[in-house]
Amino acid sequence: MSEDKKPLTLISIAETAKFYTSLCLGITAFISVFAFLFLIPFIVDPAITSLMADYEPEPVTCVGTQHVYAEGLTNCSWASCREGCTREATRCHQIYVNYSKIPFRDWKPALNVQWDVVDTRFLINAEGCGYPPSVNCTEFARQYGYSTAGTPFPCYYSRVYPDIVVARYSWDETLKHLILSITIPNLLFAASVGVLSYWYCPGCGKTCNKYMHHFPAE
Question: Using an 8 Å Cβ cutoff, are 111 and 102 in contact?
Fold first, then answer.
């Protein structure tokens, strides 16, 4: 009797393990799809836009010319910084700058600078928005607006759209985030679906078994 119960117990444990593993794989595939859809507007699309804008990788020289603090949807048609990328800004900081293509590391106060672009909009990053703690619009305005006008600081301009100037940009970081946000959810989804298909798809088992006759039987 005990010999009959032993294989049944092992089979039962194996089936239970397979059930819970399948459940975890199914949940992983489901979450991977929604994670990828969530990452598209927040990371994938902004990263592609940033790479296509072809920002100058080395910071150039900017100087603030005007800082406007506005309230109300009609007055905040654009914002240099917005905490949250999916909602309209009811309070906003609008900062304008001049910039020269002189690298910031070569900047000297005695230089007679001819600004390449004047009074253009200045954004915290390529999207002009983000989420705390990486994006703090009050701190951003304190650093680049108010009484700091006239003080040179590093910035990045777009080679494709010269009127776009941002405070933060890294080609390496942008590319890394783009690759990770695409590969990780899709690899998890493909691996989960692949294992589930192998276990539960009858055609997959037949495809594997039809090659078994090439191997000699023991």
Answer: yes
